[in-house]
Structures are given as structure tokens and as C-alpha cells.
Amino acid sequence: MKLPHKTLERKLFNSGYGYVFGVDEVGMGCLAGPVVVCAVVTTNHFYNKHHKKLCWLRESKLLLPHQREKFAKELLKEKDLVYAISSVSPRTIDKINIYQAARLGMKNAIKKLKPNFNLKTIVLVDGKTRIKGVEYEQIPIVKGDRKVFAIACASIIAKVYRDKMMVRYAKKYPGYGFEKHKGYGTKHHQAQLASFGPCEIHRKSFALVGKLV
């Protein structure tokens, strides 16, 4: 299995950058719940250390839940990695569409992190386009969560955070199975959706939900 590597970040630090961001989102394809974005910012110190407990770290979709939890716990202990989370509600998703909602979440997560503005900063974005409204230099990277270590870190933190949100929603909106499928359009979720109809956190603009409204 090809793992995300640290080559790009190390090149950027060697060329004079003081901070490197990694940004990723989770929950784009869900029928319910928010889209959640994590932005991590790292310094060269982080990449100069050997992280024994982060070996085999990869993007969140390629990990089992207990593996994601383990990696997220280790990442949150790191003094040279700081993160911020931004979530965008289903209501906003319905209003501006899922792509724009994810981009809004990215911008907001980056804004929450305020590095030393005297140091050169760059943002590595998962996807093929830059984020509008972000003042830093950016490099968009298709499938960045599979290729770039910083983006993979962001994907894990975001996924663990969102999964916990959906477990809490399962208690508020019982019967849909949010604690199991986390809002994705599984057969069980679609069956429960057809039986009960959409709840407050379903995305009404998504076709499978909209036809039941």
C-alpha cells in the first residue's frame, strides 16, 4: 500500500516556508449531517521528528474506526501540530450546495488558525481548486489525502470528530441508525428514511432526501 509522504512539506520548509497547512473535509456524500473540515498547521519541527506511533498513517477512508481513533489521539498530543475544525450545517448545504459548503468550511477552519504572520505560509488543499477568500499561497492536490501527510492528518481528525457528532445526533434523532452509517446513504439508512421521512439534519437538496420531502 502506498502511504502519504512528507516529501512536499519538507521541500516547502527547505525553501523558506515557516508554516504548512493541510486541509481536508469529510461528509461530502452523506444524506444527513454537516460537512466537517479540519485544517492542521505544522512547523518544520514536526517533520524533523520521527513519529513511531504515526507509522502507517493514511487517509481516513482507508482506516478502520479504531485505527482512526488511535492516530487522532496521537496527532492531538503533538505540540508542533495545531488544528481547527469547522462544520457547515445541512441547512447551509441546502442553501449554497455541498461543494460551496465544503469550501466555506475550509476557509473558516483556516481562519481559526492564526500563525505568526511574519513567517511564510502555504496551504495544501485536498481537491483540484484553490479556496476563495484565503490570503495564503495555496497548492490544490487531487487525492491529496492519499498523497500528502499533512492532508491525511487533517482527514483523520475531521473524520473522528464528525463520527462523534453523528453518534450524538443518533440519540437526538433515533431510528435512522446515524451511529452506524454516520449519515451515508446505506440501504438501511434509505429504508429508515423512507419509513420515517427526513429529520432536521437531512440534506433536503440531495435527490434521495428531496423526493421524500
TrEMBL record:
Its main location: cytoplasm. Keywords: Cytoplasm, Endonuclease, Hydrolase, Manganese, Metal-binding, Nuclease. Residues 18-213 form the RNase H type-2 domain. GO terms for cellular component: cytoplasm; ribonuclease H2 complex. Its cofactor is Mn(2+); Mg(2+). Manganese or magnesium. Binds 1 divalent metal ion per monomer in the absence of substrate. May bind a second metal ion after substrate binding. A divalent metal cation binds at D24, E25, D126. It catalyses: Endonucleolytic cleavage to 5'-phosphomonoester. Its EC number is 3.1.26.4. This is Ribonuclease HII. It comes from Candidatus Yanofskybacteria bacterium RIFCSPLOWO2_01_FULL_43_22.
